[in-house]
Amino acid sequence: APAVHDPALLGRVISLSNLGRTRDAIDAATQLIARGEAYRADAYYWRARDLHALGKLDDARRDVSAAKELSWSEDLLLLAGMIEYDQGDLDAAQADLANVIHADERACEGHWYLGLVDRQRTRWSSARHSLEDAMTCYQQRARTTADQLQSLQARSDLDPTYRGRVAANLEAAVAADTRQQHLAALE
Length: 187
Prior knowledge:
mainly alpha; 9 helices
């Protein structure tokens, strides 16, 4: 049976990853992997994500492959496809990214990376289609997030500091999706 504090250790891994403290997150994920089976797939995923962020592609690929043996999720397959693309393994990337899009048409990053795979293979028609889908997806997601931001700003029942922090995150998300929409249009 997993130790009572394993969920807390997983929470620590996720928090450290989201804060950009990749080395600390990798250390915590390594501890969780060593502890046993209960959260091993999640720990491999998060460690792979942080290793990918550090550009350690071989290590990230090993971890994402280990996670795929234990579990399945769209986020996991997306990360696998990104790593595989970065390593030039276009067949594996295409398979994982196609599964992501099949599971969720709104997976903007899946469309983006699939378009990059097709562009790399000089499959211009497929690349154009995937990148157009990515452009539309990013545009819709930016619009939805902008609507959430507008609703948040209209609320007076929230602590102003909290509302400001959430608003800044939403504004950053809108900017990032708009930037990706434009990149997809340029491609």
